[in-house]
Write a structure and sequence with these properties.
The protein has about 180 residues and is an alpha+beta fold. It is built from five helices and seven strands. The protein has helices at about 10-25, 30, 45-55, 105-120, 135-145, and strands spanning about 5-10, 65-75, 75-85, 90-100, 125-130, 150, 155-160. It has a seven-stranded mixed beta sheet with strand order 1-2-3-4-5-7-6, sandwiched between helices. Strand 3 (about 75-85) and strand 4 (about 90-100) form a beta hairpin. Helix 1 packs across helix 3 (about 45-55) and helix 4 crosses helix 5. About 30% of the residues are buried.
Amino acid sequence: MVGQVEVSQVDEESLEELLAVAVEDAAPEEVMPPVAGPPGWTTERQETFRNWHRARRPGLAGPLRESTFAITHNGTIFGSARLALRDSRDVLEAGMWLGRSHRGRGIGTATLRILLDEAARAGARAVVADTKAHNTAALAALRRNGATLIASQDTVEIHAELIPKSMLPPSPCTANP
C-alpha cells in the first residue's frame, strides 16, 4: 500500500462523502444495521445511515458509548471505522468497513493499527472484534495487528482479541556480555 491512511470523527461533510462511498461501493448490510423494506440503498436506508452516524458524534462518553470515524487514504474517504465501549470501560470493540474496490490494499490493517492507538489513548486494556471465517481480509488485518483469534465451535463467527500497543509490557532488554 502506498499513501497515508487516517481516521477522523464523522462530521456532516464527511458523512455525505461516506454515504456516497457506501451507496456506490458497498451493500447496506455491509455497513449498517438492518433496515426493513426493499433491498438496496433506499431513501429510508440512506437517512438511517446518516442518523446512525450522527447519534455517535458524542463519542465514547456519549449515551451510545461509541465513536465513528471516516477512513481516508491519500485524502479520499474509503470507509468507516468505529470504537465502542463494551461491558467495562477498559474494553473497546472495533469494527470497520471499506468500499469493495478499496479492499486488499492494506488500508484495513493500517486502520486497525490507528484504532488500537485510539483505544490506548482512551485507556483501553483490550480491543475486541468479531468477523466471519470467510472474511480473509479482516482476518489478515487482525493477524497483522497481533490478534488472538477464537473460532466459534458451531458457527462461522471469529472473535478477535487485541492489546493496544501502549498497553503491551516492555520488551525484555538483552545485554551483550
